[in-house]
Amino acid sequence: MASILLLVEGSSVFGIVYGVLTVWSRLSLSDWVFMAPTLAQSLVFSLSSLAAFYYNGLYNLRDVRSLDGLWPRLTRSVPLALLLLALIYTLFPQMKIPPAALVLSMAIVGCLVFALRAVLYWLLQRRPFVKRVLILGTGLLARKLVREIENQPAARYAIVGLVDDSAVLETPLLHYPLRKILERLGYPYMGPLKHLRKIIGEVRPDRIIVAQPEGLDRSHVRHVLLESRPSGVVIEDGVEVYERLTGKVAIEWLTPQSLIFSKDFRRSRLDQALARAMSLSVATLGLIVLAPVFGLIALAIKLDSTGPVLFVQERIGRRGKPFNLLKFRTMHPTVEKTSEWVCDNVDRITRVGKWLRRFRLDEIPQFWNVFRGHMNLVGPRPHPVSNFALFVLVSRNAPECGQPIPFYALRSMVRPGITGWAQIRYRYANGLEEEIEKMRYDLYYIKHMSVWLDLRILSETVRVVLFGQESRPASHPDQVPANQPEPGFESAA
Q1: pTM for the complete prediction?
Q2: Calpha distance 339→216 (Å, rounded)
Q3: DSSP one-letter code for 139
Q4: At CA 383, angle to CA 381 and CA 384, rounded to 5?
Q5: How many CB atoms neighbour CB 13 within 10 A?
Q6: % helix / strand / coil in the chain, to the nearest 5?
Q7: How far is CA 403 from the centre of its chain?
């Protein structure tokens, strides 16, 4: 949905600017000599506007759900768009358009975006564009799905009810609490699984999400679901829907079979080669271009506090091989053994360190690690060797996992990265529970890794770096906003 919206708005902005410039310059379709520069000017304007919209979160439809949320972000996009245009006009004066035409174009574009979003939000609530969803189950997975569907109107899911196992509901003692749970969810309980055929006939869902996998053990349920397929009803696995909505793997419901026989968790040779070539190119260019910045940061660190400029720590890399990760030091040195969690070391962060962390400048020495082949630009953040055994033990025995599967070991399938999916979707981990939550995002990246996903992560990282966004605390892992950035697991530096 976000990609389609970006394409529609980009095309509309381009058309508006081209139309304004054509009228302003009194061009006609026969003026081929002047048409090419006008097309170039329109393209520059539209790309600058889209970049400003993107970096202000206008295409994060999970956060921007209404016109009330759109207006402040649209307003903040104007200065950034003007700044980008000023930079381009300085480098390429021929791209400059008349100031009056620029102001007029921006005004029309603002009104157009506002109108397009108003139409979008109206359409998202209309029956032809909404998928009626029946959820099988009322357990933890079903409740998480309900919450995610409510938080993402752009998914266009409308829950018509929930169906649960009759063996549970027919017990009088359990009937009342379950009713209360459903009342809090705000959706009707349609009946037990034994009445599934009748329920489907009454509510006529477009999709059925199976959030109670054990219900499929009944031949009656399987037959009813199979009968529904020819009539156009889409049957979806609740775990896959949850993964698609949240961008993280539901490790609670992973099974050994799902990992052993999975065709995911692998990357084509072409993708691997492209990712490595991109990482090596950017790292080499970064080491050369940022050399003066390295010197200034090193000087600032030495003037601000005593201790070495660089922080060196042994981390776990691809296939479990350790390597020395480089960072600019952001904390006061200590001879005592300290906690690895950031929240336990806040008082040790230096004044310069706060700014380096905010804009992620403390990470740029890792270009050397990328150049050496220890890391890529994108991948799961490498954990300290001291924590590796602990996380492996947790991943095997934590109640959330349910099965003795070494999920954590899957992180070592790929090179670690300077930035990653977990870093742009979550925040600093300050405990084992939050580290497991981050692992869900890391596994999602490893499962779906591609060049396009890497480019998306890099673009989001640029937004974090440019705006120096801080991580926000979450009361519960499932309540973390989808666009919440985070600089990665970090030990005392």
Answers
A1: 0.78
A2: 46
A3: S
A4: 145
A5: 25
A6: 60, 10, 30
A7: 27
